[in-house]
Every structure is written in C-alpha cells, then in structure tokens.
Amino acid sequence: MTKIYWDSQVPSDWTGDHSDELRTVPEESSFTRTASHIETLEFISKLAWRSEYIHIERLFISDLRRISPLVILSNPRVTTPEEAKETGKPIVYLQGNIHPPEAEGKESLLILMRDIATGDKRHYLDDMIILVAPDFNPDGTETWEVKNTSTFSGTPHIQSLRHNAVDADVNRDGIKMETVNMKGLYMNVLNKWDPVMTLDLHSMGRVQHGYCNLYAPSYTPTGNPGPREYTQHTVLPWIREHGEKQFGAMYYTHADFDWEKWPPEVWDPV
Known about the structure:
Elements: H1 25-28, H2 37-50, E1 54-61, E2 67-73, H3 81-87, E3 91-95, H4 104-117, E4 129-133, H5 138-141, E5 144-146, E6 158-160, H6 180-193, E7 197-200, E8 213-215, H7 225-247, E9 251-253
Parallel strand pairs: 3-4, 3-7, 8-9
Antiparallel strand pairs: 1-2, 2-4, 5-6
Helix pairs in contact: 2-4
C-alpha cells in the first residue's frame, strides 16, 4: 500500500524525491515558502522543455497585465479542443490559487504536473486529458500582506492577498462574471474545452479540522441535479473510503467531521 504522509507523520527533513532542478519552491525551502507568480511560470517552463505531453495557452491577462497560464496535459499532445475531442478522452479541469493565501492548491498542482509530465503518474494521460490553471489569481499572488498567523502552525506571517487587483473576491464571481479571471475561465476553459469535471482547490488553514483534506460538492441549486447528487453521494464518499483504505489518509466533508472517528490519530493540534 502506498502511504500518504500528513500532519505529524511527515518527516521533518523531507524535501521531495525529485532532482534539484524540478523541486518546487516549498520543497526547496523545507516548506517555509510558496512560489511567486514568476516562479510558477518558470517551473511550468521547465516542465514544458522536458515533456512532449504539455501544451500551454493563455487563460487570461490580469488587471495588472500578468498572464495566467492554462496547461494542457495529454498523450498524445493536443493543442486544440477539436484534437482533444478526437481522442475520445474526458477532459478534467484543475484550478488553484483563486484565493492566493491558500497556496496549497497551487503548489500541489505544480507537483502533480511534474509527476505526470516527467514522473510516475504519466499513465493518468492514458484515460483523460487534464487542464491545469495553477495560479488563477496572479495579482493576488503578487500582492503581499502581513498577517497575525501565530496561532496556526506552519503558516507564513507574510502571505498573498485573497482578492484580485480590483479588490474582488474572484470566488464570488461565478454568476455575474465581472472579473477578468472568471471571464477567462468561461471563455477559454468551460465554453472552449468543455471539461466533464472541474476541481477548484482551497485550503482550510484557518480551521484546525485535523483531516488530511476536506472536500465539497457543488452547492448551487440551479444546476442539473444529476451530476451534483452523483458527485456528493457517490464520487466523494468513494474517495473518502478508498483514501483511508489505500493510502492511510483521512478526508471528510467541508465544515463537518466524523463523530465516530474524529480526531484523526496523526493530528497534531497547535
């Protein structure tokens, strides 16, 4: 059984298993720092030079003229939605850093892309095409603020800003689509590539829930209830069960906990 180490199980000196050239900023810094927007672009460029499975597009240009990249991972490599459709493979969209202080998603996506493009996860592309937007709010990423985070173990005192350059919470703009971020998502991902599944990554660092990770389905009542209910009652419970059985990692529903199993044994509360 492959083991996922989390919380108090993680070795204190662990910095990843890849060469120095392909280590992420957290791995290089013993997980004390996360990547800037420029460092994110540089890392993607390193992967693109080393892999035949990567195509890069522009998702949008931010209010402060920063490019948010969209990385398409496919075997064989595709460069258009038409080519993707011809493969018959489902398209999955993964998104990080809509809230830049919650940088865990962005960093996880960089590691995932590395493991697919140059590592042992290449077989994922046998069954799907993966679109990745690791830094969905580059202006927030590059705007820093000092926060009193002393109560939360391991959280940097200097972190990126939650909102974008026009002080909008992009995660609240899914209906009106007033931000360039969300317009880019609809125009250049949803309407163009038509993914069958999307995953938007966040962090619950402000809540000491004790789990390896939390998840949540779509909560909108206006969408088709079939996919929403299938995700909530079939897919996510399966992930929770098999995550613990196969990897020893405990997952649970956002803003809730398992009354019978909580707290997890490896939880190390502050």
